[in-house]
What does this fold into?
Amino acid sequence: MAAITAADVNKLRTMTGAGMMDCKKALTEADGDFEAARDILRKQGQKIADKRAENATAEGLVLAAVSEDGTNGKLVALACETEPVAKVEDFKNLAQQILATAVKSNAATKEELLAASQEDGRSLQEHITDLMGKIGEKLDVVAYENVTAEKVASYIHSDNKKGVLVAMKNVGGADVATVGRDVAMQIVAMKPVALDKDGVDAATIEREIEIGKEQARAEGKPEAMLEKIAQGKLNKFYKENTLLNQEFVKDSSMTISQLLDKTQKGLTISDFKRVAIVG
It folds into this structure.
C-alpha cells in the first residue's frame, strides 16, 4: 500500500478541484495512482449526476459577454438545486469558465459548448460532472445563446437569474448602448413572446382566438360577433406581448418601435434572447 502524503492529496486537489477528504480517499483506493484516483473522482461525479438527474434546478447564475466591437453576445445559464450552492466560489468559477469557453470556442449550440475541450484535455461537460462529485448537487447548463448583429446589447437582472441579449440593426452612426440596455430590461420585465405579430406561432394565435371567443360567449355576445371580438382581443394580445408593439415601460407614451425610431431613424430589433432560471 502506497503512503499517501499531504502533498499528494494537495496535488490531486489542484488537478481536479475535489475536496481534500475526497482526494485522500481516492488516492488511498487507487494505491497512490493519480490517474486512477482521477477516474475514481470522475465516477463519483457521474454517480451523483445519474442519481440526481431528475432533480429540479431552481437556482444558479446567468452570465453574459459582448465582444469588444459589440457585434456578438454570449449568454449562459448555469443552474443548481439550492441557493447556497449558487453562492459558493467553485460554482461561480465554473459559471465563469463556461462563459469563457463560449467566448473562446464561439460554439453555435449548447451541445457544442459542452463538448468544447478545456486546457487539461477534458470536455466542459466533464468539468461540470466532476464538480457535481465535489458539491453533491445536480449542475446543468440550462440555456446557451449566441447572437451576432450590427450591435448587440446585454442585460443581467439584479438577481443574476435572468438575462437578455438584444440584436439591433440599422444602427447607423448612433450610440445605441442606452436604448439597447433599456430594451433588454424591458424584455426581462415584460417577457415578450416574439418581436412582432409575424413572429407569434400559429398554435399561440389559435389558442388566443379560442380564448377570446369563449370569453365573449361567456359575456353573452351573439355567435355572429365572436370571431370579430376574438380578433380584437388578439390585436390586444399582440400589443401586450410582442416586443416592438409593447409600450415602453419607462415612457408609456411610445412603443418600443417608436423609441427605437426616435433614437435613430430606421433602428430596430432583429432578434432577442431571454433566459431565466426558474423554480
